[in-house]
Every structure is written in structure tokens, then in C-alpha cells.
Amino acid sequence: MKIGIVGCAGRMGRMLMEAVLAAEGCALAGGTERPGSDAVGRDAGELLGRGDLDALIGDDPRRLFETSDAVIDFTAPAATVLHAALAAETGRVLVVGTTGLSKDAEAHLQAAADRTPVVYAPNFSVGITLLMALTERAAAILGDDYDIEIVEMHHRHKVDAPSGTALGLGRAAAKGRAVALDGVWCKSRDGHTGARPRGEIGFATLRGGDVVGDHTVMFAAEGERVELTHKASSRAVFAKGAVRAALWAHGKPPGLYTMRDVLGL
């Protein structure tokens, strides 16, 4: 299976390329970078210190889609919208790990998924996917006698908050309670906020250092607290999960899938 990587020269892009090369049954089709990037025109193997891999880095995403079976996208919302349209036009599998997508951008993914398989997840870690399933189940069992707080910490360079993974955990908790997250969430607290409303799902965001990603879902009640935690020490887990998703989606009918579909949860 030939897999292309958009935004391939960054830290995550390089990890994705390494994950493709390490996966059985995969070949690296190439990658893209922004016009003017020093990486454009080079072989991906040169970036990875592997010699010539016959995998060119270009600045035309359409060409990459045309020469790949699947494309993995961990870029930025505006670029992801463009890539969704290209996936729909070419019928290629699209795996999206971009965070901070607006509802409008997500609508573009859904439109593409009407024509081709799209796997979209805020986090491609197998462990995080399991955490989301456990969060939904726990929220359903414990009910709103337990206050839910989601605490996340990432490196100082992360630009969106709360993280896409934290929001995904919030959606899982809200689904377990059969409510809409945007009707019960509290993304920040400052000043005299009054008592915590029953049923609220709160978020706390921490930023600093080089933390890859820590997430904890707390269920707090009178006399006890249940905490579900996942800590990522390497971005390689996201890359491995994304390649696993691409392999799983190959040959699937058009649709918008998640990592829970990939893992059969």
C-alpha cells in the first residue's frame, strides 16, 4: 500500500514517514511541503538519513494524492480542508490527525467521506482510543452524581486549547450521558464563578516544557474520585496508529471513520 505524507518535513511528518517505512505491507509514496521549503525537490530518504528511497517531496498535494493509495494529514485546518477535497476527487483514503478543526472544516471532512474513506481522530494512540471508550462507559454508569473534569497538559508550542484529544474525551463523556457537549462544557474558570452546575463537564489546560501529551478524566463525587489517565512519552504512538488506520481503511466503503472503528471498539 502506497502512503503519502502531507507536511512531511516537520517533526510529526518525519515520524509518520518512519512509521510507514516500518510497517509491513506499506511503501512511502512521497510527501509534500509548502512551496519554498528547503525540503521540496529532495528525496524523503535524505531527510530521514536513509539514502534514496525514490520518494520525492513536492509542493503539489494533488500529485501526491494521485500517486498514493492513502494520504496521512497532520497539518493545519486550512490545509486539511484542501486535502479533503483532493481525497474526494481522487478517491484516495484520507487519515486526518489535524486538531483545532472548526465545525465548518469538519463538514468538509464529512463531505469527502461521502465519496471516499476518511479516518478522523483527535488522537491516533491506541491507548487514548481505549481511554475514550472507557470514559464513555464510565460516564454512562456513574451518571451526573459524579462531576467530570478533564485535565490535559502539552508542550509550550501547542497552539490550540483545550487539546483536540481533551475535547474528544469530553465528547465521549457527553455521549455516555446522552447530552451534547457544547451544552454542558466549561472550558475555563476565572473570578467568582459560583457553584459548579450539576452535569457540567469541565476542562483544565496546562502548557509547558516538552510534554508530548497527558490526559486525565476525573469523576469526582462525595467521598470518592475515579481517575482515568493516559500519558504519551513519544509522538511515535500517534504515527503508528495513523498508519494502522490507513491500512485498515484501504478497501473500505466511503464513510467517516474513527480510531474506535479501526480497533473495533
Question: Could you please describe the fold and organization of this structure?
Answer:
By secondary structure, this protein is of the alpha/beta class. It has 2 domains: 2-120 and 235-263, 3-Layer(aba) Sandwich (Rossmann fold), CATH 3.40.50.720; 126-232, Dihydrodipicolinate Reductase, domain 2 (2-Layer Sandwich). The chain contains 9 helices and 12 strands. It has helices spanning 11-22, 44-48, 61-66, 77-90, 103-113, 126-142, 164-176, 236-249, 259-263; strands at 2-6, 27-32, 57-58, 70-73, 93-96, 117-120, 147-154, 185-186, 201-207, 213-221, 224-232, 255-257. The strands form 2 sheets. Strands 3-2-1-4-5-6-12 form a 7-stranded parallel sheet, sandwiched between helices. It has a 5-stranded mixed sheet with strand order 8-9-7-10-11, with helices on one face. Helix 1 links the parallel strand 1 (2-6) and strand 2. Helix 1 packs across helix 8, helix 4 (77-90) runs parallel beside helix 5 and helix 6 (126-142) runs parallel beside helix 7. The radius of gyration is 19 Å and the shape is elongated. The mean pLDDT is 96.
| Major beta sheet, strand line-up | 3-2-1-4-5-6-12
CATH architecture of the largest domain: 3-Layer(aba) Sandwich
> What count of domains describes the coordinates?
2
As a percent range, the share of strand residues is: 15-25%
Shape assignment: elongated
CATH class identity of the largest domain:
Alpha Beta
- Derived structural class: alpha/beta
- Could you tell me the radius of gyration in angstroms? 19 Å
Order of helices and strands: EHEHEHEHEHEHEHEEEEHEH
Mean pLDDT, all residues: 96
CATH superfamily of the largest domain: NAD(P)-binding Rossmann-like Domain
What's the total helix number? Answer: 9
Main pleated-sheet profile: 7 strands, parallel
In the CATH hierarchy, the third-tier topology of the largest domain is known as Rossmann fold
* Number of beta-strand segments: 12
Ends: how far apart? 25 Å
The unreliable regions are none
